[in-house]
Amino acid sequence: MSHFQPVRPADRHRFDAIIDARSPAEFALDHIPGAINCPVLDNEERAIVGTIYVQQGAFEARRVGGAMVAANLARHLKEQFAERPERWKPLVYCWRGGMRSGSMVHWMRLVGWDAQQLAGGYKSFRRHVISQIEDLVPKLQLRVILGATGSAKTRVLQALTDQGAQVLDLEHCARHKGSLLGNLPGVDQPSQKNFETQIGTVLESLDLSRPLYVEGESARIGRLTVPLPLVTQMRAAPAIEVAATPEARLSYLLRDYAYLGDDVDALTDKLGVLTESLGKETVGRWQEWAREKSLSPLFAELMRMHYDPHYERSQSNHFSGWEQRRKIEATSLEQPDIERIAAQIIALEV
Fold first, then answer.
1. Adjacent-strand bridge partners of 20
2. Which pLDDT does position 4 carry in this prediction?
3. Do residues 279 and 271 make contact, with C-beta atoms less than 8 angstroms apart?
């Protein structure tokens, strides 16, 4: 068994498992990718111990909390860890690398497992994520994929991945399509911390000598903020535009956003945001189409009157490579066409 030694976040891949000893609420907010949540205090217990600490002091909090920790550790040993082999080597962390993870590591080592504690806990991992983004982003060979709304940019990124290219899919990380109607049905966006954790994890795995393809996003995706170093790097990167015809884009949008017709109230509420800029008559007509589930005329006018008028001006203002962009023409955005577009984009590097 190895001696206790400081384990850095970058060393986490050397372990058989990563155990998050924090409460389920802390784990849900953000955690190390691949970690298993085995709390030594659940949400209610953590709140109880915190209240006792404030009202009665540290000793009483440790006495009550210690009994809870012991009971939870016993349960994990009987259930979660019951089938782990003798040579199992887990890495355990809590918020700061203190008593919660320390107690779990202590008992694991008494059993005979070579358990280690992450120095500084989740907070050190959080600093690691921020450092990865700040250090690696300036070294990226970014290629920004641009295109008017409905140009299937996300599907093109997926096809690029399938064809062996390196991709950072920010909308996937954000669980949002990045537009007025971009909320995914039944899917909450992650926390800002988890969004950044996903980005940092992708960056950590990259070959910096190869291009990285990313969709040209605004500084915000839904309620999440794209890290500033990445926004800056995207703005300066070479641009590739998927130049699809309006007919191809409309056909794609009707397929990709078909679910919007399932929640009429949500759709009409979102359209109402545009009343100030486009007027009651126009938005009222769109809301009536939404209630009738007439998505084809609705999407056609949304493109023509809302999205497209601002597209070129926005791209030229935000992406320095816009005037020198390379175009990939598309008259259809069915899956074979998307695969062809991805192949053409890769061929631009040859």
1. 37, 93
2. 66
3. no
Would you say residue 2 has pLDDT above 80? no
How is residue 23 annotated by DSSP? -
| Bridge-based pairing state of the strands 220-221 and 224-225 | antiparallel
- pLDDT, tens digit, 9 for 90 and up, residues 253-303: 999 988 888 889 999 999 999 999 899 999 999 999 999 999 999 999 999
Picking from 13, 48, 5, 56, the residue whose alpha carbon sits closest to that of residue 33 is 13
- Its sign, for the CA torsion 313, 315, 319, 324, is negative
Alpha-carbon distances of 306 from 153, 154, 215, rounded to whole Å: 19, 20, 20
pTM for this one? 0.93
CA distance 262 to 255: 13
Angle at 95 between CA 44 and CA 7, to 5 degrees: 145
- Cβ(91)–Cβ(8) below 8 Å: no
Helix, strand or coil, per DSSP, at residue 177: coil
Instruction: Please give the backbone phi and psi of residue 88, each rounded to the nearest 5 degrees, phi first.
Output: -60, 135
| Host H or E run for residue 90 | strand 90-93
Whether residue 1 has pLDDT greater than 70: no
Angle at 179 between CA 281 and CA 303, to 5 degrees: 50
Write down the catalytic residue from 41, 94, 145, 148.
94
94 classed as catalytic: yes
Residue 13 carries which DSSP code? G
Phi, psi of 282 (to 5 degrees): -65, -50
Residue 297, sorted as left (phi over 0), alpha (psi -120 to 50) or beta, turns out to be alpha
Q: What is the pLDDT of residues 89-113, one digit of tens each?
A: 999 999 999 999 999 999 999 999 9
Integer Cα distance of 202 and 218 in angstroms: 19
What whole-number distance in Å separates Cα of residue 78 and Cα of residue 65? 20
**Dihedral through CA 270, CA 274, CA 275, CA 280, nearest 10?**
-90
**What is the Cα–Cα distance from 33 to 184, expressed in whole angstroms?**
22
Residue with tokens 């910096």: 208
